[in-house]
Specification:
The protein has about 500 residues and is α/β, with parallel strands linked by helices. The chain is built from 17 helices and 17 strands. The strands form 5 sheets. Strands 6-13-12-11-10-7-8-9 form an 8-stranded mixed sheet, with helices on both faces. The chain has a 3-stranded antiparallel sheet with strand order 14-17-16. It is globular and about 65 Å long.
């Protein structure tokens, strides 16, 4: 006989966790007054928030009476909603300990599910990343095999990264215009790993972090999970408002600022050189660490590839700039190779930080990364040409099938930031899945809740024929029309 009760950690009442207030949760939920039955509507909304990660697991939900008051609804409605959440595995209760969020055994959080391989017939537009051509991988494996055997007689731990790879990455920075030595490089398991190491060392719960909006969702999630306070600055269709960035730095004095100035994800915009100088000066005045994400820097399609952001600093002004990069966008995410460039003293401290969870990356992956980076002059031009062709195919298909959608052609990067003209992104993404397309709505990239519901990020990382088919399927989802969120049904948020 199988126990129907979802598995959970023992004695959640004695386990550290968060408590969600009634007003906090009410601000995240749509008004139940217009829905019937209201309790099912609320349960669905709460379970969606749990899957999206906007309500953390092991969080205590508000008491029924408290939430009923905050939502101006009846207590039996809340009781029924909580009962349904428990039945479906999204919550559990224990007498005297309250109701806590959980996850059904057959469900994965949205941020995990989006990285899983979709069904055979589904076109995955949720991930803006390429695969690696098989012949490149085969050739690289053949060439690194002798070098791998040389390392087999060593323990294989390299907390700073493989010395040969650190030297290669340092030389790349120098070649791009920023003099760098290997001691300033830390090899990580991707750019996301680099960022989590930085916030783990340089910030504490409650610290403010300046971020762009929209921005890379996994970084936003890492900031929230570290219990930092994101302070957003807008990135519009015309770019960054540097005056807002300067005033935010001056008034808020954030501990860190995370920026994607090179073919920004998701907008594809490129920050002009004179604006970079102003940002560097403003951050230097406030003592804010700048974390510059350059994972897209080499994906220049219509303009020359920009030099490193820190090149624009005045003498001595690059001391609080941390540059992170990765193999994931230019080569292959499966290698899990990233890096950061920082003052050598900070690199040493970050290497010490990683020891608690990660003794060092795979020697094989690092040897492969070094081999591929050495082939950059042969590999990158053809890949960029492929990206241009696919971008052209995507824009032509959109213009032909969905002409009411608009966008600005980005000078680089891997995606279009499409304006659909109405707030239907979530509805479209949900319905498109039934038509065999997995895609992310713009709200997923918002630093502040409730924004970019009229936006859609559409990567052009699939073959041209696949992109045309994906657009055809998305157009089919619009034939019967999608429900736009009305003013009284749209989620209401409190910053």
């Amino acid at each position: 006989m199988t126990d129907s009760t979802p598995s959970r950690p023992a004695d959640m009442a004695n386990r550290p966790g968060r408590t969600l207030g009634g007003r906090q949760l009410a601000a995240m939920l749509p008004d139940p007054a217009g829905a019937r039955p209201a309790y099912r509507h609320l349960a669905q909304a709460i379970s969606t928030l749990i899957l999206d990660g906007r309500i953390s697991l092991h969080t205590r939900l508000p008491a029924e009476r408290e939430l009923a008051t905050a939502l101006n609804t009846s207590r039996p409605t809340i009781t029924a909603a909580y009962d349904l959440l428990r039945q479906s595995g999204y919550a559990h209760s224990r007498k005297g300990a309250g109701t806590w969020t959980a996850l059904p055994e057959d469900r994965a959080p949205t941020r995990v599910a989006r990285f899983l391989q979709p069904g055979d017939s589904a076109i995955d537009l949720a991930r803006a990343a390429f695969g690696l051509p098989e012949h490149l991988l085969v050739d690289a494996l053949r060439e690194v095999a002798p070098h791998l055997t040389e390392h087999a007689h060593t323990p294989g731990y390299h907390p700073y990264g493989l010395p040969e790879l650190r030297a290669t990455i340092a030389e790349r920075f120098t070649r791009r215009g920023l003099a760098t030595v290997p001691e300033q490089i830390l090899v990580t398991s991707g750019a996301q790993h680099a960022f989590t190491l930085v916030i783990g060392l340089l910030s504490a719960p409650g610290d403010r972090v300046m971020v762009e909006s929209p921005s890379y969702p996994n970084v936003l999630d890492a900031i929230r999970r570290a219990r930092l306070r994101p302070v957003s600055v807008p990135v519009t269709d015309t770019g960054w408002d540097v005056e807002i960035i300067e005033s935010t730095l001056r008034q808020v004095v954030p501990q860190l600022a995370y920026l994607i100035p090179d073919f920004h994800n998701p907008t594809g915009l490129l920050m002009p050189a004179h604006e970079r100088v102003r940002v560097l000066r403003a951050a230097q005045r406030t003592g804010t660490w700048l974390v510059i994400d350059e994972t897209m820097a080499e994906l220049a399609l219509d303009v020359p590839a920009p030099p490193p952001f820190a090149c624009h600093a005045a003498p001595g002004g690059a001391g609080q700039v941390i540059t992170i990069g990765s193999m994931s966008k230019t080569y292959w995410g499966g290698l899990r190779i990233g890096w950061l460039r920082a003052p050598s003293r900070l690199v040493t401290e970050l290497a010490g930080q990683r020891i608690a969870t990660d003794l060092g990356g795979s020697v094989l992956d690092q040897l492969l990364a070094r081999n591929l980076l050495a082939r950059e002059a042969d590999v990158l031009p053809s890949r960029l040409e492929q990206i241009r062709e696919q971008r052209t195919a995507l824009t032509a298909a959109l213009a032909g099938h969905i002409p009411q959608w608009t966008w600005r052609l980005p000078p680089g990067g891997l995606s279009l930031w499409v304006d659909m003209g109405e707030p239907i992104a979530s509805a479209l993404a949900e319905r498109a899945l039934a038509y065999g397309v997995r895609i992310e709505g713009g709200a997923f990239f918002a630093a502040d809740p409730g924004l970019f519901e009229q936006r859609l990020r559409i990567p052009y990382t699939k073959p041209s024929d696949t992109l045309r088919e994906a657009v055809h399927r998305m157009a089919a989802t619009l034939i019967d029309g999608l429900p736009a969120a009305s003013a009284d049904r749209r989620p209401h948020w409190v910053a």
